[in-house]
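Lecture 7, part 2: worked example. A protein chain together with N~2~-sulfamoyl-L-arginine.
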Amino acid sequence: MKKTPLLLLIFMLGLGVTLMATAQPAPAGDLRQATDSRLLVVRAYFSDPQMVADLSTWTEPWEVNYERGYVVLGVTRSEYEHLVITGFDVELDAELTAQFSRPNVPLPGQGEDTIPGYPCYRTVEGTFNTAATLAATYPNLATWMDVGDSWEKVTPGGNAGYDMMVLKLTNNAIPGPKPVMFITSAIHAREYTTAELMTRFAEYLVYNYNVDPDVTWVLDNHEVHLMLHTNPDGRKYAETGLSWRKNTNNNYCANTNSRGADLNRNFEFLWGCCGGSSGSECSETYRGASPASEPEVQSVQNYARSIFPDQRDDPINDPAPPDATGLYIDVHSYSELVLWPWGFTQTPTGNATALQTLGRKFAYFNDYFPEQAIGLYPTDGTTDDFIYGDLGVAAYTFELGTSFFQSCSTFENQILPDNMEALKYAMKVPRTPYLTPAGPEALNVA
Ligand code: 0X9
Ligand code: ZN
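Predicted complex, written out as structure tokens:
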């Protein structure tokens, strides 16, 4: 429900905003000023869907409701003014603004390996300890591998940074090659549920080997590769309660809380092609200095190329063969969506029907809304467009849940069970993801 315009008026007066009737929209490029870091969470009503596409050049709408005609997003004061000038009817969400302006506080007795105030979500260290312990305890099933470095790790001075780690799950006693499922999570730092979902999935697989026949079959015959933290540097800031999205690269928008590159705009496939990212360093969707400029992105690209064969030719409409192998999922939050390429154009891919069939299957299990990625808003340089575009591998983005700092009760009771079902389906189809999901299917074999 819309809030009273009076509240909006008081708020704008309080900020000292003076909007001249003749004001012209500033170029969207450098809207976010390095000095202007206070975040206001707003609901902005639009009159034309094109206004949402225009937003994607300079920011990332947290939530888009095309039916009711609004977006929810976090903005600085100058971005707020830009929204108003470009025709949005903007109202402040006082509750979310307050939430993102106070630091996270631990609950009484809460340990250090979970996020303060959110005991269901392991920290980066808590996640890495869990994965390392799984590999040490079950060396026949789990391998914990260093596949690269974070920006802080390769940069002298400052924070120590992290290794880019992958947890590989398969029965090592049975030699490959085996079909591969690769999942990345938490490439956006503030998306708390994503890494925890995948850590729970890893524990489920290891603990249920030789217990659950489906899990046993999957680990004997497939490989599951999980990069649980794809942006560990950024996540350390987000754990404090900051609404941190990008990596922490201090060459961009230096020494501010708006610094860094959006790793989900930095992949090299058609990098910056199509108005789905920003060239402005302080922007939430800053694409980085050049294609795959960020070490985290280089790690993901190199690792994907090492585990998947290249099965697609360059022309944009060329399909991968129907029996192409491999499955990739990038787990984000929020919005309850299952998305597949392309994100940069309305044109369907050469494997559109098959991608849609599997996408709808996932959506059947997690009860999310399935669509081609551009249906949300235009994006370029994303994970899924790279994995499909470069390698022909079936690639998806899941958008979990209904907020970045999702409550533990919603995570445990809804997001986790719903998405475990989708993942338990996903783990069975990576041999031929463009064929198998179309059926026929054997149910309740006795
Ligand atoms: O903007 C993004 O990167 C994703 N949304 S998020 O709120 N997690 O930041 C959506 C990406 C959708 N596009 C593609 N998957 N290509
Ligand atoms: Zn995200």
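Confidence is low (pLDDT under 50) at residues 1-23. Residues 213 and 219 are 10 Å apart (CA to CA). Keep this in mind for problem set question 3.
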